[in-house]
């Protein structure tokens, strides 16, 4: 298909996203980048992990997205005494008929908020991560499909370590993106205060329906990516594994314990196409890859003790790689 034809499809399909943003802005002040990244996650069929201190409207953002998409929504508050069945559901025995019936858990929703996922033990985290990966859960002897679309936004609090169960690196890698949500500016916080103190709750208009997401994904998949940009992504990922192969990154070798997995290559390409799509473009440009690079990679590289001793973060490493790898 010609680029001109794809461009027309992308413009028509993605135009509604400006209405989505406008509706959410009635409730959420600022956080435009976070909202765009969540839209990218939804369109690319990936799940998102958000890290931030309490009170930054993480719950409100995902519930507002669900309302605007007219989608089913559930919130799971993770606690140390939670069981896998509390998430996935279970089989209920009926003594009259002698049969078992399925009691679905809160994971059976289009948009699921996994609040403070690091507060639950590993078997509970694994139950959710399996559902995220397979889009189904096993109840009794049968597998039950989850609704489509199925999007999980998990949160974790970075300031509390006591009584938490950090996600293992292999499980964190299953998240499409890891986002860091920041404090609002003074002006934004004033707007938040005025809204929350004076105004009544805002009823958000339903802009889209869940079945529209699949149609948007089909158009997004048409977005063109040049071979040289695919090579650029490959070099970015390879630089996290073998920085010594790149002239100006050799000094990173001792700072990286493990580089990004092949899943990072796939997710970065998908995220770049989604970034181009929400920008109304039928083709990917290098800036699309750079825009989503940190969010896709920050949880996929493991630093060495030397890097931690030098108080370097994964973002410092990723910024170096994005700055030094030649842009095609």
SSE arrangement:
Blueprint: H1 3-14, H2 16-25, H3 32-43, E1 48-51, H4 58-68, E2 73-77, H5 84-88, E3 89-94, E4 99-104, E5 111-115, H6 122-134, E6 136-139, E7 142-145, E8 151-156, H7 169-172, E9 177-180, H8 186-198, H9 210-220, H10 227-241, E10 256-258, H11 262-278, H12 286-297, E11 302-303, H13 305-309, H14 314-324
Parallel strand pairs: 1-8, 1-9, 2-5, 5-8
Antiparallel strand pairs: 3-4, 6-7, 10-11
Helix pairs in contact: 1-9, 3-11, 10-11, 11-12, 12-14
What can you tell me about this protein's structure?
The strands form 4 sheets. This protein has a 5-stranded parallel sheet with strand order 2-5-8-1-9. It has a two-stranded antiparallel sheet with strand order 3-4. A two-stranded antiparallel ribbon has the order 6-7. It has 2 domains: 17-81 and 109-136 and 143-206, Rossmann fold (3-Layer(aba) Sandwich), CATH 3.40.50.300; 223-324, Helicase, Ruva Protein, domain 3 (Orthogonal Bundle), CATH 1.10.8.80. The protein has helices spanning 3-14, 16-25, 32-43, 58-68, 84-88, 122-134, 169-172, 186-198, 210-220, 227-241, 262-278, 286-297, 305-309, 314-324, and strands at residues 48-51, 73-77, 89-94, 99-104, 111-115, 136-139, 142-145, 151-156, 177-180, 256-258, 302-303. It is globular, with a radius of gyration of 21 Å. The model has no long low-confidence stretch (mean pLDDT 87). The chain starts with a helix and ends with a helix. Helices cover 46% and strands 15% of the residues. It has 328 residues and is of the alpha/beta class.
């Amino acid at each position: 298909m010609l680029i001109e034809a794809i461009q027309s499809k992308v413009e028509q399909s993605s135009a509604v996203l400006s209405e989505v943003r406008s509706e959410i802005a009635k409730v959420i002040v600022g956080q435009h980048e976070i909202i765009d990244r969540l839209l990218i996650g939804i369109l690319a069929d990936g799940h998102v992990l958000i890290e931030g201190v309490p009170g930054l409207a993480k719950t409100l953002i995902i519930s507002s997205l669900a309302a605007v998409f007219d989608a089913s929504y559930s919130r799971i508050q993770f606690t140390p005494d939670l069981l896998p069945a509390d998430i996935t559901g279970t089989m209920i025995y009926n003594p009259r008929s002698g049969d078992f019936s399925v009691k679905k858990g809160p994971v059976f929703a289009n948009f699921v908020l996994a609040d403070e996922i690091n507060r639950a033990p590993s078997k509970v985290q694994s139950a959710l991560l399996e559902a995220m990966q397979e889009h189904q859960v096993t109840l009794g002897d049968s597998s039950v499909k989850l609704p489509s679309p199925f999007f999980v936004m998990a949160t974790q609090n970075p300031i509390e370590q006591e009584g938490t169960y950090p996600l293992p690196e292999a499980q964190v890698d299953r998240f499409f993106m890891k986002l860091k949500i920041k404090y609002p500016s003074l002006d934004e916080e004033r707007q938040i205060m005025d809204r929350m103190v004076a105004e009544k709750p805002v009823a958000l208009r339903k802009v889209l329906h869940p079945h529209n997401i699949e149609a948007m994904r089909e158009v997004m998949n048409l977005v063109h990516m040049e071979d040289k940009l695919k090579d650029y992504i490959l070099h970015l990922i390879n630089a996290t594994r073998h920085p010594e192969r790149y002239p100006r990154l050799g000094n990173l070798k001792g700072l990286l314990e493990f580089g990004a997995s092949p899943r990072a290559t796939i997710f970065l390409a998908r995220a770049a196409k989604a970034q181009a799509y929400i920008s109304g473009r039928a083709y990917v440009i290098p800036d699309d890859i750079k825009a989503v690079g940190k969010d896709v990679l920050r949880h996929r590289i493991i630093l060495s003790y030397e890097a931690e001793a030098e108080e370097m973060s994964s973002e410092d490493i990723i910024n170096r790689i994005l700055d030094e790898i030649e842009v095609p």
